[in-house]
């Protein structure tokens, strides 16, 4: 019997994650069953369960792959480009709706809450690192507000649809220069 390569296993796992990402973004977490994920991925039940034992594990895998490409500096241009990137992901992949679903599920699933909280902490740490001229306590307050406003923008995109990032960019720039 031929041995399945790691590349093949990785591709199948990613196929499941991609199908789940699209399905969760369009139908929500609660309205998506494992059967829906089997159909969306084009794989068998056995194939899905070979990689994931539950929807929660799939959501965790989606979160693990999520990366916020924070700007390398906190200039108007860099922050605007970052928010435009969030806007593009919302339009093209339903990312804002997916994030809303993940946050809602994290509110009632402790293991997912831990994962999401860890990602938020990484984002706050990244912002703090971009504020070396601020006292640490002040930088921590700014980073807390910065991350919260970025997520508020994403949530607004999920509910309102396409949304100009200009007022959010202005607010984020103002808070980082205070």
Description:
By secondary structure, this protein is mainly α. 75% of the residues lie in helices and 0% in strands. It is built from nine helices and no strands. The protein has helices at 6-27, 34-41, 45-51, 55-65, 76-93, 95-106, 110-129, 136-160, 166-176. It is elongated, with a radius of gyration of 18 Å. The model has no long low-confidence stretch (mean pLDDT 91).
- The helix/strand class is mainly alpha
Give the N-to-C terminal Cα separation: 65 Å
Largest sheet: none
Q: Give the proportion of residues in helices.
A: over 70%
Radius of gyration: 18 Å
Q: Give the overall shape.
A: elongated
Report the uncertain regions. Answer: none
Average pLDDT across residues? 91
With helices defined by DSSP (H or I, 4 residues minimum), what is the helix count?
9
Overall number of strands: 0
The H/E string reads HHHHHHHHH
Proportion of β residues? under 5%
Secondary-structure blueprint:
Layout: H1 6-27, H2 34-41, H3 45-51, H4 55-65, H5 76-93, H6 95-106, H7 110-129, H8 136-160, H9 166-176
Helix pairs in contact: 1-2, 1-4, 1-6, 4-7, 5-8, 5-9, 6-7, 6-8, 7-8, 8-9
């Amino acid at each position: 019997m031929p041995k399945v390569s790691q590349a093949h296993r990785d591709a199948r796992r990613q196929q499941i994650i991609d199908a789940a990402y699209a399905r969760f973004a369009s139908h929500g977490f609660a309205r998506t069953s494992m059967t829906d994920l089997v159909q969306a991925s084009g794989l068998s039940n056995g194939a899905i369960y070979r990689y994931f034992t539950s929807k929660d594990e799939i959501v965790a895998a989606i979160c693990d792959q999520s990366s916020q490409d924070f700007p390398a500096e906190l200039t108007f241009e860099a922050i605007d480009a970052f928010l435009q990137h969030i806007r593009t992901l919302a339009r093209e992949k339903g990312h804002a709706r997916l994030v809303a679903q993940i946050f809602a599920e994290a509110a009632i699933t402790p293991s997912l809450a831990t994962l999401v909280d860890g990602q938020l902490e990484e984002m706050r740490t990244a912002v703090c690192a971009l504020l070396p001229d601020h006292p640490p306590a002040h930088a921590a307050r700014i980073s807390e507000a910065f991350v919260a406003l970025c997520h508020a923008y994403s949530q607004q995109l999920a509910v309102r649809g396409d949304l100009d990032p200009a007022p959010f960019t202005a607010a984020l720039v103002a808070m980082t220069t205070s």
